[in-house]
Amino acid sequence: MNYKLIYHPDVKRIDLQLIDSKNKFMIKKAIEERLATHPEIYGKPLQRTLKGYWRLRVGDYRVVFKTLKQKILILGIIHRKDIYQQIQKRINSE
């Protein structure tokens, strides 16, 4: 089953601008081949304040997402050292 991918506006405007082309290619491939087909197998559920959200690990980057029936909302693609603080701010501002 393929899910429809929906990106948070900050992903394209901010996150992808900070990632080099090699990592962008790896992340794009992982999202299309793994996340869009089987998010529950390749993703890992987050806990505590981010309960209900999932993450996909791609090298040093994390893709934080939420599944909504046939859609996947990608909230951020950020380096692992910064992801959880920035995602929390993004979620709180919605």
Which strands sit side by side, in order, in the main sheet?
1-5-4-3-2
Report the average pLDDT across residues. 94
Q: Shape from CA axes? A: globular
| Name given to the CATH homologous superfamily | RelE-like
Strand tally: 5
Termini Cα gap: 28 Å
Poorly predicted sequence stretches spanning 5 or more consecutive residues: none
N-to-C series of helices and strands: EHHHEEEEH
Tell me the radius of gyration: 12 Å
Q: Structural class, from secondary structure content?
A: alpha+beta
- CATH first level: which class? Alpha Beta
Number of domain modules: 1
Query: How many helical elements?
Result: 4
Q: Determine the strand fraction and express it as a percent band.
A: 25-35%
Q: Sketch the major β-sheet.
A: 5 strands, mixed
Could you explain the architecture of this structure?
This protein is an alpha+beta fold and 94 residues long. The chain has one domain: RelE-like (YaeB-like fold, 2-Layer Sandwich). Helix content is 36%, strand content 30%. The chain contains 4 helices and 5 strands, in the order E-H-H-H-E-E-E-E-H. It has helices at residues 9-13, 21-35, 39-42, 83-92; strands spanning 4-7, 44-45, 54-58, 61-68, 71-79. A 5-stranded mixed sheet has the order 1-5-4-3-2. A hairpin with an 8-residue loop joins strand 2 and strand 3 (54-58). The longest helix has 15 residues, at 21-35. The chain is globular. The model has no long low-confidence stretch (mean pLDDT 94).
Which features would summarize this protein structure in a list?
94 residues, single chain, alpha+beta
